[in-house]
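sry for the spam today, last one i promise. struct tokens for design, 167 residues
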């Protein structure tokens, strides 16, 4: 999770590839009306996000039930959003990609094929509720180091989970 431009898609895809897991980008699930709104430079509100979050929760729940390990790249800026997405799912870990406004603003200026307007970044930081129950990964390090830290975290969680099942 993290604000737009924090690298959720790039990092999430690389971690999923390293683990041989499925990857899901929450941006691909946004209703067209949400994408149009963001392209116009208008921030989404909770009513815009509600159906999107419900869809993500359904997809994640289905994948957990089917034991299909998945990396979900999603902004999930508020605790209530994270709670909604994880509803009924066990063994879901939040990884927060944390960076400064200036670093992420600069990254967003460099990309050209994304619907999220750089001017909306301030609105994302304004509603961001940093998670207290997440692995926090600083974005001021090389991409490979970020991917490795997340990979190691997930592998360690799996080992702890397996140890718990054998007791």
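last one done:
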């Amino acid at each position: 999770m993290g604000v737009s431009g924090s690298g959720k898609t790039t990092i999430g895809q690389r971690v999923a590839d390293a683990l041989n897991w499925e990857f899901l980008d929450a941006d691909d699930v946004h209703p067209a009306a949400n994408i149009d709104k963001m392209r116009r430079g208008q921030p989404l509100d909770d009513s815009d996000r509600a159906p999107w979050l419900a869809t993500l929760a359904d997809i994640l729940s289905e994948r957990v039930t089917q034991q299909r390990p998945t990396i979900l790249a999603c902004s999930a800026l508020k605790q209530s959003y994270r709670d909604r997405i994880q509803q009924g799912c066990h063994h879901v870990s939040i990884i927060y990609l944390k960076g400064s406004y200036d670093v992420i603003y600069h990254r967003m200026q460099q990309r050209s094929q994304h619907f999220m307007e750089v001017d909306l970044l301030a609105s994302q930081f304004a509603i961001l509720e940093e998670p207290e129950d997440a692995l926090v990964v600083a974005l001021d390090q090389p991409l490979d180091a970020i991917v490795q830290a997340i990979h190691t975290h997930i592998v360690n969680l799996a080992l702890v989970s397996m140890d718990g099942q054998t007791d």
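The mean pLDDT is 88. ok im logging off now
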